[in-house]
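Hi R.,

Here's the chain you asked about this morning:
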Amino acid sequence: MPSAQTTFPLNTETAIPAVGFGTYLISNDDAEGAIHSAIAAGYRHIDTASGYRNEETVGAGIRKGLEAEGLSRADMFVTAKLWPGNPAWGDAPKTGSQTIEECDASLSRLGLDYVDLYLIHAPYGGEMRLEQWRALLDLQAAGKARSIGVSNFNESHLDEIAAAGLPMPDANQIELHPWSQKPGLLAHMAKHDIAPIAYSSLVPLSTWRTEPGQDSAKTDEMKADGAAFQGMADKYGVSEAQLLLRWGVQNGYAVLPKSLNPDRMRQNIDLFSFTIDDADMAQMATMDRGDGVAWASGDPSK
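And here is the predicted structure, written out as tokens:
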């Protein structure tokens, strides 16, 4: 059985740990302690973004966790993301030089010399998308990002990069769970060796984003059958969250669970003591409901 440090290749130099710790919606009051606890629980992959507005405290948590566990920077995989701008909000798309500056600013806030993966957070750059992508290629060449990619890009956005004759992204971070399986996009990515990274893996849980200010954008139908996976989880003696995360890893996606509870952190990374059988994987394959809800909600940070 593979260990919790199972990895998926991104390029010839870089592999991403299958289970990462997500930091979206973690406040600056909580981030340092949460990251420290996550590293203590065994996480070696931390995912953040400038749009989360918590990079400084995430960076502090990484340093604290590495020191406490006797680890080096090379033991940790860190993902950061460019906020590309959004003209719909009067937020001008970043130019290539601004993209370089934004990465430098993220590195400074994180207290790091490089990140293992740097992503364009969303395809909002419009005419600047290719310029932003060229800047990421420059960042990779400069050693500031060991691998580079995108997030929330669809087939047409990826085709734009290919048509320009530019190297394709190493990864595309997208919403993936049994209710949003994106087979067409995944097949398109596979043709170009673009690794999928799953976010919002736990959307089907009844507890997903139910806190005030975290509108889940779920339909009443979704809320009504939020326990659809409980029977399967009981069969394997695991939580529903573990089942949903294992589904992602078993399909070859890195996953990014998040919790402030150390016990749940440990549970969410314990995905390699069981395997979902073929019958249950086949049943889950029939549950696709389309594009998903996390990005469809209009939330700019994801």
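One quick note: The first helix runs from residue 28 to 41.

Cheers,
M.
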